[in-house]
Amino acid sequence: MKRLLAEESGSSVIEFVSIALILLIPTLYLFATLFTIQSASFAAEGIARESARIMSEARDEGAARNYAAGVAAIAAHDLNVPSENIHLDISCSTPSCLDAEADIDVSVTIEQPLPLIPAFIRDRLGTSVSVDAHALGIANPYLERSR
């Protein structure tokens, strides 16, 4: 019996591969999750900043809101974020965003689903991360604007 316990003629390759897989797969998923959340964070920040810039330089409020929605769609496509998960809210300190020196507050919320989770699990458990970004713009008082 002692001879069987003292004998160590096993295959270290099998042990190494099994331990590497046990540690590697969760690490890869962690990185994929972090990169997905970072992508949503970049998208939210960029959408908020550029939408505030568009609204502050706008000559027509309706067109500027449409342009801001277009910025959201482009950023979503570029950063691989589902565009239906983006909520863009533009509010102004005055009744119209075109008033001189109106404070324009842009708030963006993105519900980013976690990677590699099937839709039927995602629907039941709500496995998504909410990423928020805010930007503040001031309407340019020197522009001639249509009302």
Overall pLDDT score: 88
**How far is the N terminus from the C terminus?**
95 Å
**Major beta sheet summary:** 3 strands, antiparallel
Order of SSEs, N→C? HHHEEHE
**Count of discrete alpha- or pi-helical segments spanning 4 or more residues:** 4
Strand order of the largest sheet: 1-2-3
Shape: rod-shaped
Rg, alpha carbons: 25 Å
Helical fraction: 40-55%
Strand content: 15-25%
Quaternary state of the chains: single chain
Count of beta strands: 3
Low-confidence stretches: none
Structural class: alpha+beta
For the record, the count of structural domains works out to 1
What do you see in this structure?
Keywords: Membrane, Transmembrane, Transmembrane helix. The chain crosses the membrane at residues 12-32. The protein has one domain (12-138). Helix content is 51%, strand content 20%. It has four helices and three strands. The protein has a three-stranded antiparallel β-sheet, covered by helices on one side. The N and C termini lie far apart (95 Å).
